């Protein structure tokens, strides 16, 4: 890729700075509108098809970094060595005499409609579709997880409600049972207290009688009365 694609390469050689609008793939050079018109008129470049500079900048770097001229002889590639899978210029042919060499045109003609290119395109489309399926599947899983969480939270709240309801009923029943037992115990205690009260009254009466006998009865009365008190 040229070091500066923002200015016209031809104008730059003329010490004129003009913004580039086009890119010639064959010449590997940026062109302004005026130079593009001259480019189309020159016999040697008449067949070239410049593209908008924005389209060129959109190409991936591994494509724009590909040299289209021989780095050893500074000439455009004209031949292709199939054995080394390398484009070569005419001066490189001496190093590839025993190789299967053909013209660049033979290997690049209709390359964008070739089976290999279409296969790559199809495989990329398949990858995009597979990724889209994975994304949709994961998003569906995401939704399922949210719904599952919501369902479990609802179930837990319902279980907690049932447990609380059961505990409330159990508490009420236990309180009721305790109150009944309390009443029963109080009734028994009251009966005991009533019986004790009666005995206390009797004992107090006996004690009063005993005191009266002690103070006022004769010895004979006391002696005979003791047997009754016993």
> How many helices does DSSP assign?
7
How many distinct beta strands?
Answer: 6
N-end to C-end Cα span? 136 Å
Low-confidence spans: none
Strand-pairing-aware structural class: mainly alpha
Structural notes for this entry:
This is B box-type domain-containing protein. Keywords: Coiled coil, Metal-binding, Zinc, Zinc-finger. One of its GO terms (molecular function) is zinc ion binding. The protein is rod-shaped and about 170 Å long. Helix 6 (115-216) runs antiparallel to helix 7 (219-229). The strands form 2 sheets. Strands 2-1-3 form a 3-stranded antiparallel beta sheet. It contains 7 helices and 6 strands; from the N terminus they run H-E-E-H-E-H-H-E-E-E-H-H-H. It is mainly alpha-helical and 230 residues long. The chain has helices at 9-13, 33-41, 53-57, 61-64, 104-108, 115-216, 219-229, and strands at 22-24, 29-31, 51-52, 79-81, 86-88, 101-103. Helix content is 61%, strand content 7%. The model has no long low-confidence stretch (mean pLDDT 90). The chain has 3 domains: 1-66, Irregular (30s Ribosomal Protein S18), CATH 4.10.640; 69-109, Double Stranded RNA Binding Domain; 121-226.
